[in-house]
Write a structure and sequence with these properties.
480 residues
Length: 480
């Protein structure tokens, strides 16, 4: 704080640290209850050559200060922002809230910046081992944009409770000895240890799991900005991996087998003694249970080879609305039922809020087999291609022929493509009702799994509210 600003202010509020929210709140309460406007207050962290003390009045007992809980919660995060004017900004906002209960966009923007920095720290901290035996501990160097170390330290305590560690940053340090967490002063990169043996192993692992066919440079740099590269052991590999990605992808595709391994085909044969695609005939079933049975042996595209089973739709045959998802996930593939995994739980919860009874609607997927990529012991969802969507539309059309709904809800891009016969921009067409040539109305929205992929808490809640609004529109359309 410049000396001229201090001299012009009638009151000085001193805070113990850059993240002293309790101190700020106490000072703000004293100032506001005594009707002291923001322009008469100077805020300062710690002490300097100026020997002027904290001269704030006591809270007026007859004054009542009421602010939205949302402001308090957001202010506690924004106090960690690196903007030196944040204390004054928050007090000006508190002053204004007494007559205008509206939070500005700047507050939301600053809050998001802090949370983004918190997430980056959790993703890009890399520990290096120093010492052995009883002296073993792990040290990391990180350069955050904001004052987030203290707010973020509990996450690392929970994640690495069994080891002793220290995280050094220019602003502050966090140290965990296995029992007690201590927050200390900042450090310089010279205090961080040099590379250890584990990093060579990690680079070898990273280079071998790198999939050039899935590389999206802009998306990668958005999630992992270059400013973090210098502190990541794998970062030294990234430029060469990007440069050779096209060549590596071509070579990888050339190495791919054109048919499943014999042992794999043998295992599948026990479960599905299936016909060749040319032998598959048009389904003749006139009810859903019989159609489901026919679909259990579907071989119209190669996805059946790796999936556990066909996941067919379920619900009443006289349903007014059919919800069409994209494809089964890991849990749906194992259970043989649609929408029973994490996205299904979000879907059920929001249907309840929108007062839509799932027992009275039909729920299915555009693609009936789980398409995935193995990653260790996990199976990671992979988006169906146009040929797979087109092949499986055969079954979806039959479901619609039997049920004859008044409305179909396309949950996501794959569902919309299957229902409308072409790719459509979900973001632009969300909430639209499109009538097909056969008269079926199609309502376009996101897939609930999109909500689960959002990292920022505020963004996640906002998207959940948007999806709830969509489902309430569906409720109205069902009655129309």
């Amino acid at each position: 704080m410049a000396r001229t600003q201090l001299s012009l202010a009638s009151h000085l509020a001193r805070l113990e640290s850059e993240t002293d929210f309790d101190g700020w709140r106490d000072a703000a309460r004293r100032l506001a209850t005594n009707d002291i406007p923001p322009e008469e207050v100077a805020w300062q962290v710690g002490h300097d050559d100026d020997d002027r003390g904290n001269d704030l009045p006591a809270c007026r007992q007859d004054a009542r200060l009421v602010v939205p809980r949302e402001f308090i919660e957001r202010a506690e995060t924004v106090i960690c922002h690196s903007d030196p004017e944040r204390f004054n900004f928050l007090y000006r906002l508190l002053w204004r809230l007494r007559v205008e209960p509206k939070l500005p966009r700047k507050l939301e923007s600053m809050e998001k910046a802090v949370w983004r920095d918190i997430h980056k720290m959790r993703a890009f901290v890399r520990f290096r081992k120093i010492g052995d035996g009883a002296e073993e501990r792990y040290v990391a160097w990180f350069e955050p944009d904001h004052f987030i170390v203290e707010r973020n330290a509990d996450f690392f305590v929970r994640r690495f409770a069994g080891m002793r560690w220290t995280i050094l940053t220019p602003h502050a340090s966090a140290e965990w000895d296995g029992k007690r967490l201590a927050i200390g002063p900042g450090a310089s990169k010279r205090d961080a240890p040099a590379e250890d043996d584990a990093e060579t192993l990690w680079r070898t692992y990273f280079e071998n799991i790198f999939n050039p066919a899935r590389l999206k440079v802009k998306a990668m740099q958005k999630e992992m900005p270059k400013k973090y590269w210098r502190n990541l052991p794998e970062a030294s590999l990234i430029p060469d991996l990007i440069a050779g990605a096209d060549r590596a992808a071509t070579a990888m595709i050339a190495r791919m087998p054109t048919s499943p391994a014999p042992r794999h085909a043998k295992v599948k044969a026990k479960h599905w003694p299936s016909p060749e695609p040319a032998d598959v005939v048009e389904p003749e079933s006139t009810d859903i249970p019989a159609l489901r049975e026919e679909a259990s042996g579907c071989r119209r595209c190669p996805l059946w080879r790796d999936a556990t089973q066909t996941v067919f739709g379920e619900g009443p045959e006289n349903a007014d609305v059919v919800f069409v998802g994209e494809q089964p996930g890991d849990q749906e593939d194992l259970a043989g039922k649609p929408f029973v995994g994490p996205a299904g739980k979000v879907f059920d919860s929001i249907l309840d809020q929108a007062e839509i009874d799932r027992r009275k609607v039909y729920v299915t997927n555009a693609v009936k087999h789980f398409k995935f990529e193995p990653r260790g012991k996990r199976r990671i969802h992979s988006k169906p291609n146009a040929g797979e969507i087109r092949a499986c539309r055969w079954w979806l059309d039959k479901e619609l022929d039997i049920i004859k709904p008044n409305l179909a809800v396309a949950l996501g891009a794959t569902a919309a493509q299957s229902l409308l016969g072409k790719a459509v921009p979900i973001t632009r067409m969300r909430g639209d009702v499109i009538q097909r040539e056969d008269g079926l109305r199609v309502f376009v929205t996101i897939h609930p799994s999109f909500i689960l992929r959002i990292r920022e808490h505020e963004d996640k809640e906002a998207e959940r509210e948007r999806f709830l609004t969509d489902m309430r529109k569906v409720k109205q359309l069902m009655a129309a």
